[in-house]
Amino acid sequence: MRPIIWIHCIVRSVCLCVVCLSLFQQGLAGAAEPNLITGSVQNQDLRRVGQVLVEVKNQEGTLVTTGVSNSAGEFSIPVPADETYSVSAVQDTYRSEYIVLKIGAEAPTPISLTLSKTKEVALEVRSPLAPIQYKASSETYSISRKEIEELPRGNNVELQDVLVTIPGAAYGSLKQVHIRQEHANLQLRIDGVPIPDTVSSTFSDVISPRAWERADIILGGMEAQYGNRTAAVLDITTKSGTKPGFGSVQMLGGSNRTLNPSFEYGGTIGEKFRFYVLNSHTATNRGIEPPTLGHSIFHGQSERNQTFIRGDYQLDNSNNFSWVFLNSVAKYQIPTLPGQELDPSGTVLPLLQASRPGFTPVASQAIDENQKENNQYGHMVWRHDVNSSNFFSLSGYVRQTRATFRTDPFNLLAYTADPAEPFSAASQDRNAYSGGVRMDHTYIPNKEHVIKAGFQVDRTQAVNKTRLFTFADDGAGNPAGNVLGLNADNRLIGYRQEFWIQDQWSPNDRWTFNLGVRADVVQYQRDEAQISPRVGITYKANPANVFHVFYGRQFTPPNLEAISFAKLNTVGTRAAPDDTTNNTVRAERAHYFEVGSYHALTSWATVQLTGYYKLANYLADAGQFGTTPLLNYFAFERGWTRGIDGALKLQITDNLTARGNLAWGQCKGYGLQSGHILLEAAEIADINSKGGVHCDHQQTLTSSAIVAYRFLERTTLTGQTLFASGLRTAEEGGKTNSTHSPSYTVYNLSLTHVIPMPWDNQKLLLGFDVVNLLDQQYFINRGEGSIGLGVSHAGMPRSFFFRAQWFF
């Protein structure tokens, strides 16, 4: 525990120094208050906007000085003399009105600048599109609230439905999205605070896209402040309260017994406090993708309730506090496969009936397995501006997550296909408690440098309770005796510490160097650490063409909540694994390389192109073993991922927009480092073979596109297409993951119409959506021939949905 005590001392010292520096700097600033222009920048809906350039000009129109609004939207700009000035704010394609101030003996009253849309952008190209980025050494893909609402089913979609619209994102069932050939490794952030993982590993997403104002998705090439999960970072800006308030009530229903009512409201209390509340309840018979094609779903009903609450308190021009609470409670029936053969070997059923006289198995579609999930998360963030070039945020967070899977042991064992192979039925109860503190500090000494530094300390306690049902082994590989119930309760406590420093150095308008280093330390089942340099270079050839290269080290510890650490003694039973090796899963360590470019092709089209390569030791993976949706981590000794992706964005007219992407990629692993007890002997042999195996989450070609057209002023037609070349599988008797599932293309359609209501600022939106318009019959993945997929999962057949949303 000595490292932890030492870290707590550092945290307290750093916080004390920052507070003292804050008080000192505020004291210095107080003497010059009569020559300060202060105020705030906001959108037209009165939401505060940070990182906006504020320009101050004299009576001749000459630019005198500038400032930048902080994360709370506030600014404070000193001016050189007592005279009359005009003040305005500029951000990308937005500009505020000009406000004229006369500076004299008394400090001027704080002003409010409201941004509105313009047609000119920083590219010096007349375009309705936002300017391309030219300082970050990563590919950033932004999704706005409007773009989410244009998707088929609107903002009633789930997290994975939004993610599959970004480059290189392949859907892999159970609400998992594999980005750039990685399994999970996805980081969600709210207010810059990473949300800890759940025990179900993104199976039940907590934050609904309904609550998003926008999301900036960072793909590769990440600066030093981004660690732990690095396949992609979703930096979510959530909705917040406005003055006057806003709200809506919505109902979506349709195929698959879907019913989804929701409610949201945002407003203010007094002049300083804003709040936003969202609640959504979803019921459907496709909570988990079934192993059957078409609408015939057996034992698939699910329900989920999601709540999101946000509060913002603006204490003064320098201090802002934000509070977020998330809650998700869900229960799922595990879909079944009808028509399975009962006890084909004829050896298991007599043993079951001997253990429980009178036992009669149900039909295979009536096997009753269920999973319940309960996730809560909250954080508090304090943002403080020491001065216009020195500011920080300090946050604390907690999370509780639990998933309980209950099996139907006798009925499940009755359908054992081959008792010569290891077999069992198991119930699991996993829960974890996470808590931590994070600090991000930014210092801008001059126009050439932006320096960021910070730390994060996290503690997680995970509990894994397992009850396994199987038979004794008679010594010849046959089941014998009564059903055995094996129990194991295990607890694991882990600590993670992260430290980083980053400098964005722009010596001139063309070149930017992103130079950083981070240190990661974990105390999980084993103690591991790594120093990771990050180096990125961007070159702006001209305002319309920007290029970047990047190299960085990555350190990715396994999800503590999903490590299989329950030590069941299965020796002498038919649940004993083929290979009893039980190595501790290790953190992935990788070298990551990326090259990319951004181009403004015309005034209405931009394109992004990126190529990447990752060379890893202990390449991380995870799988679904058995019928439970809960995942277990394992690792290869080494491996690599590589790929190329491109994204196109079009704003053809004010009423016609489109975006699309195409990605090619591969992933391969060599040698098995951990997870032997989870895999079959043939799979282990394939992994340890000279050529290794392709990763089960690899999808060679992935593409998506969406077009939205608004006509008749208030009617919008949206079309979407999703193409997948198929996840990895194998032919019968073939090498693991040696081929891929059949490719498929899904077409979705949406039509919405807005009806103005007779009351002020109220309207009614009516929508009709079709998912899988051409009724493509396809499997997302197959349960055989790939690593860690216990059952198959079929895609949604043609489905119709209707929705109505009242805005008030």
Number of distinct beta strands: 43
**Quaternary structure:** single chain
Distance between the termini: 54 Å
Shape: globular
Main beta-sheet strand count, sense and barrel state: 22 strands, antiparallel, barrel
Radius of gyration: 28 Å
Number of helices: 6
Helix content: under 10%
Mean pLDDT across every amino acid position: 89
- Based on helices, strands and strand pairing, what is the structural class? mainly beta
Strand content: over 45%
Low-pLDDT residue spans: 1-33, 119-127
Account of the 3D structure:
With 808 residues, the protein is mainly beta. Helix content is 8%, strand content 52%. The protein contains six helices and 43 strands. The strands form six sheets. The protein has a 22-stranded antiparallel beta barrel. Strands 1, 2, 3, 4, 5, 6, 7 and 8 form an eight-stranded mixed beta sheet that branches. The longest helix is centred in the first third of the chain and has 29 residues, at 2-30. It is globular. The two termini are 54 Å apart.
What keyword list fits this structure?
808 residues; 6 helices; 22-stranded antiparallel β-barrel; disordered N terminus; 43 strands; mainly beta
